[in-house]
Amino acid sequence: MPDDVEDVDDVADVPGVHVPRVVRLMWGLDEPARRGPKPALTITDIAAEGVAVADADGLAAVSMARVAKGLGFTTMSLYRYVESKDDLLVAMVDHAFGPPDLPRQLARAWRRWLTAWAHAYRAALLRHPWILQVPITEPPLAPHQTAWMERGLQALAHTGLSEQQKLSSMLLIDVFVRGQTQLALGIDPPQPAAAGTADGERPLDPYPLRLAQLIDEERFPAISAALASGSLEDDSDFGTDEFEFGLGTVLDGIEQLVTRRSGRTR
Predict the structure, then answer these.
(1) Would you list the DSSP string of 158-192?
(2) Span 64-91, pLDDT tens digits
(3) Residues 136, 254 within the same domain
């Protein structure tokens, strides 16, 4: 059972509301469907093996058969825990994130804590970029991801925001982190050490050179100005620099909302 889970015995079933069995297993609320002696396999074992496969060979390589083989069990054994590959992915994503490495008791410096939250979230995605390929069908239910949401909301506890505004703020940050990380991985994927120049510099970005051959200043004056300024030719770390700029801008917006709610003027 995850360390963040407390008093799960007090959680009651709600008639007519179905919680997937894989989620209940992850929270420690159910035992796997089985006959005979207690098996040595756990939902954590299955999730960890799935993560190992995805990290090594990509999400497309993950299958019930591949995971079962890696664990030394039959494919049918896995169905005691996960009813489908979708269930397997739910367990894998939660295991890949793990518990948030952030303090439980947060100070009033909400912006500093949300900055740390966003950086930790991005780091998890960069460690396991295949997470971005897994469709999101509902807000967090799995234990680790629920703990991530809890930590983010705790950071906003003393801001004066309404509960809906806190949730909407966390959704905004979540969408930004995921979207910017996915974009950066596509545009500027991690390069092996040998991919740079002899001096260890980043390779030349051909994008502005290509763009310059396609546009004219009369039709595209704004883009032409960006090209002329050299802003599209810098050799900075696109992923990191744009992440810092975007996150700061998002937090600026939330700070304005906090200021309005508190009645203070800057």
Answers:
(1) TS---HHHHHHHHHHHHHHHHHHHHHHHHHS----
(2) 999 999 999 999 999 999 999 999 999 9
(3) yes
